[in-house]
C-alpha cells in the first residue's frame, strides 16, 4: 500500500512538473521575456548594490545581456528536475536499472520535443531543435545524478545489512 501511494505521488509530481513546463511554454514571447526579465532584475538588485542607481536604459541593457543565459538555464534546470522526478517514479517499478533509465530518458525526450512543438503555436515563440537537445541534456543530468545517488544508497544499505565476516 505504501509503495502504491509513493508511486502515485511521484508520478503526480512528474505530471505537475510537466504542467508547469506547459504553462510556461504557453506564455507569448513578450510575456515570457518579462518573466525572465523580472527574475534578472531581482537577482541583479540583490547582488549588485548600485543596480538601482543605474538609469533605466542601463538596467535594461543589463537585463538584456543576461536574457539568453537565464532562459537557457531555466530550460536546463526544469528538465533536470523532470529527469530526477521521472527516475524517482520509475524506481517504484520492478524493472531493470537500465530499463528505468531508458524509460525516464525517453519520457523526458518525448516531452521536450512535444514542448517545442507546442511553442510553434504560441505568439512570438518558436520550436527549436537546440532547445530539445538542451532540455534532454538537463533531463539526462537529472536522471544520471539520481541513478548515481540511488546506486550509492543501495550499496550503503547492502553493506549495512550484509553479515560481518570474521
Structure description:
- This protein is mainly alpha-helical and 166 residues long.
- It has one domain.
- 81% of the residues lie in helices and 0% in strands.
- The protein has helices at 2-25, 29-47, 56-90, 97-119, 129-161.
- Helix 1 (2-25) runs parallel beside helix 4 (97-119), helix 3 crosses helix 5 and helix 4 (97-119) packs antiparallel against helix 5.
- The longest helix is centred in the middle third of the chain and has 35 residues, at 56-90.
- It is elongated.
Distance between the termini: 39 Å
Shape: elongated
The low-confidence parts are none
Share of residues in strands: under 5%
Give the helix level as a range of percent: over 70%
- Gyration radius (Cα, Å) is 20 Å
What oligomeric state do the depicted chains represent?
single chain
How many separate domains make up the residues? 1
Average pLDDT confidence is 93
| Helix run count | 5
InterPro entries: Phosphotransbutyrylase, VanZ-like
Protein name: VanZ family protein
Pfam family, one: VanZ
Keywords: Membrane, Transmembrane, Transmembrane helix
Write a brief caption for the model.
The chain has one domain.
Amino acid at each position: 500500500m505504501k509503495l502504491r501511494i509513493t508511486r502515485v505521488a511521484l508520478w503526480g509530481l512528474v505530471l505537475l512538473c510537466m504542467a508547469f513546463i506547459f504553462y510556461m511554454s504557453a506564455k507569448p514571447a513578450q510575456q515570457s521575456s518579462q518573466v525572465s526579465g523580472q527574475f534578472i532584475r531581482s537577482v541583479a538588485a540583490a547582488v549588485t548594490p548600485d543596480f538601482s542607481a543605474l538609469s533605466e536604459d542601463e538596467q535594461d541593457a543589463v537585463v538584456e545581456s543576461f536574457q539568453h543565459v537565464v532562459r537557457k538555464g531555466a530550460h536546463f534546470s526544469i528538465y533536470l528536475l523532470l529527469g530526477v522526478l521521472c527516475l524517482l517514479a520509475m524506481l517504484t517499478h520492478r524493472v531493470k536499472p537500465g530499463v528505468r533509465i531508458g524509460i525516464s530518458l525517453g519520457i523526458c525526450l518525448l516531452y521536450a520535443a512535444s514542448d517545442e512543438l507546442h511553442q510553434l503555436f504560441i505568439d512570438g515563440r518558436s520550436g527549436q531543435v537546440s532547445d530539445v537537445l538542451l532540455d534532454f541534456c538537463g533531463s539526462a543530468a537529472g536522471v544520471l545524478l539520481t541513478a548515481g545517488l540511488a546506486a550509492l544508497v543501495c550499496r550503503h544499505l547492502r553493506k549495512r545489512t550484509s553479515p560481518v565476516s570474521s
